[in-house]
Design a protein that fits this description.
With about 260 residues, this protein is α/β, with parallel strands linked by helices. Helices cover about 45% and strands about 15% of the residues.
């Protein structure tokens, strides 16, 4: 994995860093693979309650894929399919992560960077952040697996507007069209992302995982099964519910166990 994907751990909060600041955190094939492996490992860790995803430094979250790799890694369809599999496996690892994901966005968030941010549950950016997907300028298309999170987030009309025009939008417009959850002053992005992660981590982890699962399931138009409807009440048999209920009555802060 090297040093291009870093994991910083502080209690129940893990921070995953796209660590290539000299290239504004442009993503290589190796980085995509390492990011996927990292997310799978964190998802399996019951000690994690929230994951912050960010780029190194404060100039960029990520501008997307490193174009210099195209000549050797994506110069034809066969190579692109192999490269795309790595990207799409990582997208699946992000989408399927059991824990809430918070994107901490400084500066540029474009192309593949926007795809990663779209796969997070919350996106917090600074006032000078910029967003877009101008891949039409490379003669490329965003594959189904890459476009799906963006379409789910902002809808097909806005996704097409971004892709067809290739415009780069500012933070205010990104908030207006639903690309980001919250815009704060540039020097408060890290603080707000951390505070958000702490609020999430303070809650019942089983409830957070169920909410993520249910929200994903509700995007599928298929009717809910009896078993799925029944699962909504499994929380009442959890230790977390007993802890939370008792703490509420005692006017104390609950100390959830995730069981």
């Amino acid at each position: 994995m090297g040093e291009t994907i870093l994991v910083e751990r502080d209690g129940a909060i893990a921070t995953v860093v796209l660590n290539r600041p000299e290239k504004l955190n442009a993503l290589t094939r190796a980085m995509w693979g390492a990011l996927g492996e990292t997310m799978e490992r964190l998802s399996a860790d019951d000690g994690v309650r929230c994951v912050i995803v960010r780029g190194a430094g404060e100039k960029a979250f990520s501008p997307g894929n490193d174009i210099s790799e195209f000549a050797t890694q994506r110069s034809n369809k066969a190579q692109a399919i192999d490269y795309g599999k790595v990207m799409h496996d990582t997208a699946a690892a992000l989408a399927n992560c059991r824990h809430p994901l918070v994107a901490q966005i400084h500066g540029i968030c474009v192309g593949g960077g926007l795809e990663i941010a779209s796969l997070c549950d919350l996106r917090i950016c600074g006032e000078s952040s910029r967003f877009g997907a101008p891949i039409k300028n490379l003669g490329l298309v965003m594959a189904y697996a890459e476009m799906a999170p963006l379409v789910r987030l902002v809808g097909p009309a806005v996704a097409l507007e971004l892709l067809l025009e290739g415009r780069i939008v500012d933070a205010a417009e990104a908030k207006a069209i639903g690309l980001v959850s919250r815009v704060v002053p540039d020097d408060e992005v890290a603080r707000e992302a951390r505070a958000t992660a702490e609020r999430i981590a303070d809650g019942a982890p089983l409830a957070a995982r169920w909410h993520k699962k249910f929200a994903r399931r509700l995007q599928d138009p298929a009717p809910l099964s009896a078993a799925e409807l029944d699962e909504c009440f499994d929380c009442f048999d959890s230790e977390d519910f007993r802890i939370g209920y008792a703490a509420f009555l005692a006017k104390q802060k609950p100390n959830f166990t995730g069981k």
